[in-house]
From TrEMBL:
<feature type="transmembrane region" description="Helical">
    <location>
        <begin position="106"/>
        <end position="124"/>
    </location>
</feature>
<protein>
    <submittedName>
        <fullName>YesL family protein</fullName>
    </submittedName>
</protein>
<feature type="transmembrane region" description="Helical">
    <location>
        <begin position="205"/>
        <end position="226"/>
    </location>
</feature>
<feature type="transmembrane region" description="Helical">
    <location>
        <begin position="181"/>
        <end position="199"/>
    </location>
</feature>
<dbReference type="Pfam" id="PF04854">
    <property type="entry name" value="DUF624"/>
</dbReference>
<feature type="transmembrane region" description="Helical">
    <location>
        <begin position="136"/>
        <end position="160"/>
    </location>
</feature>
<keyword id="KW-0812">Transmembrane</keyword>
<feature type="transmembrane region" description="Helical">
    <location>
        <begin position="21"/>
        <end position="44"/>
    </location>
</feature>
<dbReference type="InterPro" id="IPR006938">
    <property type="entry name" value="DUF624"/>
</dbReference>
<keyword id="KW-1133">Transmembrane helix</keyword>
<keyword id="KW-0472">Membrane</keyword>
<feature type="transmembrane region" description="Helical">
    <location>
        <begin position="56"/>
        <end position="79"/>
    </location>
</feature>
Length: 253
């Protein structure tokens, strides 16, 4: 039965709320080891327990590639379908199909991003605190760290959208961030606003915010993808026209 008017709008809104909430809960469940250590870190930080906070950092670094990255890749698999117009997919089945299919690539990517983040963060901290005359290097490390973090939006989108090797996906995610920064940095700003709202209303993290961020990130990525496809097709068309014109000129001569 299809509802129309205000009732139809309310019904569709309820459907989307359910989809986002279900996907977000699946993500939270599969990311639960990482989220547990994250919550513990926030608790020990509030109590100013430095050693325990450092231990939580290492615990998060260990479990992130195993849980957080595969769970996030699976969430991007679901939102990819939504962005591309297939909104009636079964969320549970699509999520775990994406989790299984992309586990290896997301694990490898998680190891790469986690290790590089640790190295860059340690370098940044050392240069900014122990070498006052070399703080410019620390600033450069911070900029590279931000670029690395932002490229993760493209990484998860590519894992969900392309069939490539892990090395190609990581390389292309970073390159796309550098050559097409506007959309991905707009994703970062939008995510920051959502996180700010979530800090004020923490329950939204459980049901909506990570999934909304994933949807927005893939929406921006897909817009970039379509634009690049359009430019590529235009170049191919222009090349074919130039070839035909050159052939015509040779025929006349």
């Amino acid at each position: 039965m299809e509802f129309k008017g205000a009732m139809g709008g309310l019904y569709r809104l309820t459907e989307w709320i359910t989809r986002f909430a279900a996907t977000n809960l699946l993500w939270a469940l599969c990311s639960s080891p990482f989220l547990f250590f994250l919550i513990m870190k926030l608790i020990v930080m509030s109590q100013q327990l430095t050693n325990e906070s450092l231990q939580m950092n290492w615990a998060m670094a260990i479990v992130a590639p195993l849980t957080l990255f595969p769970a996030t890749a699976a969430m991007f698999t679901v939102v990819r379908k939504w962005v591309m117009g297939d909104s009636d997919i079964p969320v549970f089945r699509t999520y775990f199909a994406g989790f299984k299919q992309n586990y290896k690539q997301s694990l490898i990517g998680g190891l790469f991003y986690t290790l590089l983040t640790i190295v860059m963060y340690v370098d940044y901290t050392v240069y900014m605190t122990q070498f006052p005359n070399l703080q410019m290097i620390g600033v450069i490390m911070l900029i590279l760290l931000i670029i690395l973090f932002v490229s993760m939006f493209n990484f998860f989108s590519m894992v969900a959208h392309y069939h490539m090797s892990s090395r190609q996906i990581i390389k292309n995610a970073i390159l796309l961030t550098l050559i097409r920064p506007f959309r991905v940095f707009s994703t970062l700003l939008g995510s920051a606003v959502l996180v700010y709202v979530g800090i004020r209303y923490p329950v939204l993290f459980i049901f909506f915010i990570p999934c909304i961020i994933a949807w927005f990130a893939f929406f921006n990525f897909y817009g970039t993808f379509l634009k690049m496809q359009e430019q590529l097709q235009k170049q191919q068309t222009d090349g074919e026209l130039e070839g035909k014109e050159a052939a015509a000129e040779e025929t006349k001569n």
